[in-house]
Structures are given as C-alpha cells and as structure tokens.
Design goal:
heterodimer; A: alpha/beta; B: alpha+beta; 6-stranded antiparallel beta barrel; 7 helices; globular
C-alpha cells in the first residue's frame, strides 16, 4: 500500500472544540475553503488513536477584528494570496464520531464510538478510501452497498442483517428519491436473504417495473429475482394492461374484516364515533365473521328498525355507517366469500423465504391501502407471534424474519391511530416476533413520536419542514449538527442515513440503478447471457 | 566569488558598520552581506548607508555654483574623494557555522577590519530558504524598518527561480508576524507585490 492511498489530503489542524460541540479545525492556507462541504468525512490523527468525523459546519475567521473594518486590497492577486490562510482563514467544525485505534478491541470489533477528543493541533486529513471502507465495511454476504459518500468513490455498505432486526424508516419530500432508495434496500434484503419481505406497493413500483425520472422504466424485484419474488395483485385488469402476469390475485372475504379495521378507517370513510360503536353492536348481532355480510343483507325497513332499537343505535349513525361501508362494498376484490384464504397464501410464500409484492393496481385510494394492509398484516403478525411463542417453547423453529414495507406511513402511525393499528404494535414490539417495518413517508412529523423513536435505521432525503426535520432527528446525538447537514442535502439522490445498521451517520449519493450494468451488479442475467451460460454448461457436460 | 565591498569599522552583537572601499557605492538597501569572525560567517542585511566627511568637525561645502555638470566638481577637486567616505550599517540576521546556516544572532560580533562581501545570488537563495530572519528585521529599531524589509524581500526574490512564490511565502510569514499591525503589513505587502 503506498502512502498516498492510505492517507487523504491534509486539510488543517485542530485548534479547539469539545466532544459535544465538535472540534474546531483551522484550515491550512493551501486548502481552499470553497472545496469543503458539510457531510464530508475527515480523519483526525490524535496521539493514541485516529478519530473519524464528519464536517458539520464551515466558517470564516480573521486574525484581527480590524481586518473586517478595513479590508486589505484583495483586488491584487498577490495580496489576496498572502492574506488567505494567514490573516484570514477557514474554519471547519468537525464532529468526531468514531475512534480507530490499534488496540485489540478495535481490531476485533472495528471502530468504536468516540468518548474523547483529539489533542490540540492534531492533524486533520480528508478521509481516504481505506478509512471509509474500514468504517462502513465492504460489500459481502451481510453488507449491501447503498451508495457513495459525498465526492468519494468508496462504497458505503449497510449491514442488512442488523437492518432487518429493527423497524426502519425512509423519509423525504416528494420526488427526492424515497422510492428509489426503498427499491434498493428491498433488493438488498432479497439479495442477502436476511429476511422475507411483504411489500404493500401502492403505486405498482416495486414488483415488476418501476418508473424513474431519468430512465424510461426500471426493472422491479420480480424481474431481477424471478425465483425469489411473488407478485400478488388486487387488480388483475390493471396488471394485464401493464403486461404483468401476477402470481396470485388477492380476494378478501367479508369475513376477514374486523371492527378494528373499520375503526382505523374512521377518518377516511368519514364515520362518526357512534357509527364505529354500532359496528361492535353488529358483531354482537351477527357474529365476528358474518357481521359485514349480515349488514349488507339487511333489507326492509322493519328489520332495520328492529335491529336499531334492539342495539340502541341512532338512525343517523346507521346511515353514516351504511354510507361508509357501501364504499367498501363497491370494491371488486372484497367479496362475500373469498375463493381462497389470501392471507394463508401470502404466509405460505413468506414461509418459503419468498418475497411478496402486493400491487394495488388502480386502487391507489388510501382507504383501500390502509384496509388491506391492516387486514393482512394483522393476521400475518398473529401467525408470527404464535410461531415465535411456539419456538420459545422449543416446539418449532423461529419463523424467518419478515419485513413489511408500507407507504404513506403517517396514515397508519399517526398518534390518533397508532395505538389501534397493528403497525403501531409492530413498530413498538418489533423484533420480539421477528416482524419489522420499513416505513416510507413524506411527513415524518405526523408519525407518532413513540413509533419514530423505535425506528432503528432512518434514511432521510431533503426535508424542509422544521417539524419534519425535528421528528426525524429526534433523540440522535449531535442533532443540531446533523440538522445543518440535512438541510443542505441536494434535492435528489442524496440521503442522510443513520442508526442501527451503520456505525455513524452518513450522507450518501445513492448508487446507480436502472442501467444494464447496475442490474448485473445485483446478480441479474439477461436472457442472452443465460442462454450462453447454459450452452457453456452443456458443452462442459459432454 | 563574492565581491569585497568594504570592511567593518564598528561592530556590536546586533550589527556592524562598514566603510565602503568606493565612495558613493554602498550595497543596495536590503541586500545581504557577509563578514567573518574567525570560522563563523556572519550575515547581515544592509539597513542604512551614508556618505559624510571623514572629519566630523568639517562639513562639506557646496562647490558647484559655476559648474554645468556635477562630475566636474570632483574632477576639479580630486581631494574630495579622500575627504569623504561612504559607510553602511548592517543588521546581523544569522550566521554560518560548518556549512550550516543558522537564522539567529552570531555568538560574537565580527572583528573590526573584517572584510565585508556582497553575497552572490546563490548565497542569497541559500540564506533566504528559511524566513526566520524576518522576525529579527521586524523587531529592529530604526526609522525605516518596513522599507528595509520590503527592499530585502524584493531583492531576495530575484535570487529565487520562482520569485513570486517566494514573495507569497514571505508575505504569509509577515502576515503571521504582523497579525496585530495591519497597516504595517499592508504597507510592506504593497511594496513587495510584483
């Protein structure tokens, strides 16, 4: 290894600072301040160990206050050159994140969280490719390459095995690249086989084909990993129009809908509190599995009146409920009696370690999305819970970890419903039963605080609402520094990722996706190549 | 070979005064000169020069009222070149010992009557590789320290292949040394810019 490769360019020296406030670094006069950028990595060479940190602020300093009042004649390039870095200089604020020391612990467990600061005048260098690799690991069976740090070619790798152990979140304004990163992470999880995925694909972006703003259409999971991904759809017609052949068409029977599902939809169906109460009365009348069918079958004023009086339901509540439920009744995939138990089907696939993408076709309405996601997830969760408990009693194997991907997460996880929906429970109790969430949302501030605080790894693109930024960064150390970094992200493709699956927060430019080259990196072989390979194998055989 | 230009007539730790062998031809302000004290070579920077009567009690009188050219005065009065002398002052800024150049004061001043040489470009370049001597110059007492510093840097820059780079380096050193005295810094910088 030659010297130039192992050490990045020298930037300056530490002149002050603290562990909480970050180190103050005076730039060398040869280091142009305009080439610095927040979010970039530096290595500080202390006496005993090296500190790995991130630039969180950049400022200007002068040696003498008078200089700001009577500025020198900088129109003269000579004077400007002399003044730069001496009388006037650049300052960086660097937050040390990790220490890389030569001791046994570091060698075995890699970089350790920082607990002290480097001494005065320690040398500060740009982090070299090797340093970054040391911190973020290299791509292997557990680490998945998500992108590169700012202005570097090194790969930032996410520990997928750790990633799936907690619920995770992807946030960002609309159009910043949430879907793009989600697709990448899903590919990572499918590729590393650390968990089975159930994806509620509201806009049909992950399954067969997704849209991208640069390339016409990008391949979805099914195209890349045909043998590991099953495509389920609610809308066969839409799938056919898109020339996608689903593995299974989901139908939900009325019997699958429980009062809690309706309670969750209270806002979107515009139901009143008494109307929800009435649902529970209906269950008492018709039974848990037949209440909806019974309700739709009610005919004749007499019968209705009798029911209302019997359960003390007000007529307006009844009408309100009827209007709401009729909206559900019009959905073609909701049928009185389903052909097959869709939940069971999905579980079978998941059990085999397959990944299931559920496309919603034309039903992009939030009501539908919430209803279906809630119904399916509740049952799947119940099964997982049962199995994990059995595994605890040593009667069976622990179920394969499951990651459920939901979009528009604030609808499920906002403070008023987070208590009721299964997603709130999963986010809170999470890994105990091997089921975790991947939530995707553009309004993180609308998500229940308790849920947000339980998310393991968070990836966030540009956010410009103060409340959203605060809620994403809640509880993270060095919040104010990260806030600066977050607000300076580019509008696209740059994400700040931090949390459980990474040793330290990192700004990444997400890896390229959509070209033939990129598909190949994921292990995808096109037809021609497959044919060639088969021919070669045949040749070898004979 | 460096040119011999005069000899020391007065010496102290901080510097020396030398008399020029030729009237009216002192080394330029700010130039690097060298003298010796035994094995030790002492370097100095010319900070002042003057031409005056040998006898302090006898001031020269004006003689050219009827002359059309200045040179005629000296031609008419050849004794003048014997009655006048040119001297220059140098600040000691470093010394050389066993082929090593040290940028701090020599242990002893030069002896009186030591020869003084004007340094060649080569030697100037070698001496000005390090700019540590600047602090001695800036701290010296006298009327035109800043003028001397800028003259010295201007001249030294000619000895370097990349004169501009040398001046920038020197400028940066000055900016640090004169951190609290911006006006002085600005004045010097304006005098040394190319």
């Amino acid at each position: 290894m030659n010297e130039a490769n192992t050490q990045g360019e020298r930037l300056g020296i530490v002149v002050g600072g603290s562990l909480t406030g970050g180190m103050e670094v005076k730039l060398d006069s040869a280091t142009p301040i305009e080439e610095m950028a927040v979010g970039r990595y530096v290595v500080i060479g202390g006496l005993r160990s090296r500190f790995f940190g991130m630039i969180t602020n950049i400022s200007l300093g002068t040696i003498n206050q008078q200089l700001t009042i009577t500025p020198p004649d900088v129109a003269d390039p000579f004077i400007a050159e002399v003044i730069t870095g001496t009388s006037t200089y650049g300052k960086l604020q660097v937050t040390p994140m990790l220490t890389i020391s030569g001791d046994a612990v570091s060698l075995l467990e890699g970089p350790q969280p920082v607990k002290t600061v480097p001494t005065h005048f320690s040398e500060v260098r740009e982090a070299s490719e090797q340093d970054v690799e040391l911190v973020f690991g290299r791509e292997d069976e557990k680490h998945f390459y998500v992108g590169t740090p700012l202005d570097m070619e090194t790969k930032v790798c996410l520990n997928i095995a750790e990633f799936v152990k907690r619920s995770n979140g992807i946030f960002g304004k609309s159009g910043t690249g949430k879907t793009f990163l989600t697709r990448l992470l899903l590919i990572g999880m499918v590729q590393k086989k650390e968990a089975a995925n159930l994806i509620f694909d509201m806009h049909n972006e992950y399954g067969w084909e997704g849209t991208s703003e640069h390339v016409p259409n990008v391949k979805g999971l099914k195209q890349l990993f045909p043998s590991q991904v099953a495509l389920f759809t609610l809308d066969e017609e839409s799938a056919r129009r898109r020339k996608v052949s689903p593995d299974y068409v989901v139908q939900i029977g009325y019997d699958a809908i429980e009062p809690e599902d309706i309670a969750l939809l209270r806002e979107t169906l515009n139901l009143t509190e008494p109307a929800i109460e009435a649902v529970y009365q209906l269950v008492r009348e018709f039974g848990e599995e037949r209440w909806l069918e019974g309700f739709f079958n009610l005919s004749g004023d007499e019968e209705i009146k009798e029911l209302l009086t019997k359960h003390n339901i007000h007529e307006s509540s009844y009408r309100n409920l009827r209007r709401g439920l009729q909206r559900l009744g019009r959905l073609p995939f909701l049928v009185p009696h389903a052909r097959e138990n869709s939940v069971q089907r999905i579980l079978e696939y998941l059990d085999r370690g397959m990944n299931v993408v559920l496309e919603f076709g034309r039903y992009t309405d939030v009501t539908v999305y919430m209803l279906i996601a809630n119904i399916l997830t509740r049952r799947i969760y119940a099964q997982y819970r049962e199995r994990t408990e059995m595994a605890m009693g040593e009667k069976a194997d622990k179920p394969h970890p499951l990651v459920i991907t939901i979009e528009e997460a604030h609808k499920f996880l906002n403070p008023s419903v987070a208590e009721q929906t299964i997603f709130g429970t999963i986010a809170r109790e999470m890994r105990k039963y091997n089921v975790t969430l991947l939530v995707i949302d553009q309004r993180p501030s609308s998500i229940d605080d308790e849920v947000m605080s339980q998310l393991g790894t968070k990836a966030t693109y540009l956010l410009d609402n103060e409340k959203d930024i605060d809620s994403v960064l809640m509880g993270v150390s060095g919040k104010s520094e990260l806030k600066t970094v977050l607000s300076k992200l580019e509008a696209k493709q740059q994400a700040l990722i931090f949390g459980h699956a990474l040793p330290m927060p990192v700004v990444v430019k997400t890896r390229e996706y959509g070209s033939a080259e990129s598909y190949k990196e994921f292990g995808f072989r096109d037809a021609a190549e497959l044919k060639r390979k088969t021919e070669e194998e045949i040749k070898d055989l004979f | 070979m460096s040119t011999k230009i005069g000899e020391v007539i007065e010496a102290s730790t901080g510097g020396f005064v030398a008399e020029c062998y030729e009237l009216h031809t002192p080394p330029p302000l700010g130039s690097v000169v060298r003298t010796t004290d035994g094995d030790v070579e002492i370097y100095g920077i010319v900070c002042n020069a003057s031409t005056e009567s040998i006898d302090p009690g006898r001031r020269p009188v004006a003689r050219g009222k009827d002359e059309s050219e200045e040179e005629n005065i000296y031609r008419q009065h050849p004794q003048l070149s014997r009655l006048l002398r040119t001297t220059f002052e140098s600040l000691a800024i470093g010394h050389g010992q066993e082929n090593e150049i040290l940028h701090y004061l020599p242990p002893r001043p030069p002896r009186v009557h030591s020869f003084v040489y004007l340094c060649e470009q080569d030697e100037v370049r070698r001496f000005t590789q390090s700019l540590d001597f600047l602090s001695i110059l800036l701290n010296s007492k006298g009327g035109s320290v800043d003028e001397m510093v800028s003259a010295c840097l201007r001249q030294a820059s000619h000895a370097h292949d990349d004169g501009r780079a040398f001046l920038v380096r020197a400028g940066k050193e000055l900016a640090v040394l004169l951190g609290g005295e911006l006006n002085r810094l600005n004045a010097i910088l304006r005098r040394i810019r190319l």
